[in-house]
Amino acid sequence: MSRAVVAAALVTIIISSLYGEKKGWDHYVAFTLTKDRWQSVEIHEGEKVHTLKFCWTLYKNGALVMHVNYDNYRYQPLLYAKYRLDSFKVEIFPKSDDSSRSQLQTPYALIMFKAFDEKKREAYLDLGIKDYGMSEIFYAEGKK
Predict the structure, then answer these.
(1) Cα separation, 81 vs 63, whole angstroms
(2) What is d(CA 95, CA 103) in angstroms, rounded to the nearest whole number?
(3) Strand locations in the chain, DSSP E?
(4) pLDDT digits (tens, 9 = 90+) for 20-76
(5) Model-level pTM?
(6) Which has more confidence, 8 or 77?
(7) For domain 24-141, is the CATH number 2.60.98?
């Protein structure tokens, strides 16, 4: 086997392992947020524009206090970097009345708490959106 083929195979394996967490998501992005720094995500569903904003305000005893705002509905989840306590789910579009989608195809966003850096005072969060190809997503970091 030539070196070029081996190098190409190695690069493919490395890239697929780095982006393996994205599998299954329509949109996936990682964020690093400092205290009270809002992250804004615009979700375009046809002509409708939905806004998902989130930040954290307190990290104490391994728990991250989040503020989440989706279309002016406010939530305050408490997230831990442990399995089943590390994420918060938001349904991003209203349920359809015509039963065109099954219950398993309800679009949603999942905010996942990965880690916290005590020295830098930064939270590492991932955002996965499963919209079944129904929207466009735009990200913009907000102000304090």
Answers:
(1) 8
(2) 9
(3) 27-34, 39-45, 48-60, 63-70, 73-75, 78-80, 87-91, 108-117, 122-130, 136-141
(4) 447 789 989 999 999 999 999 998 888 888 999 999 999 999 999 999 999 999 999
(5) 0.76
(6) 77
(7) yes
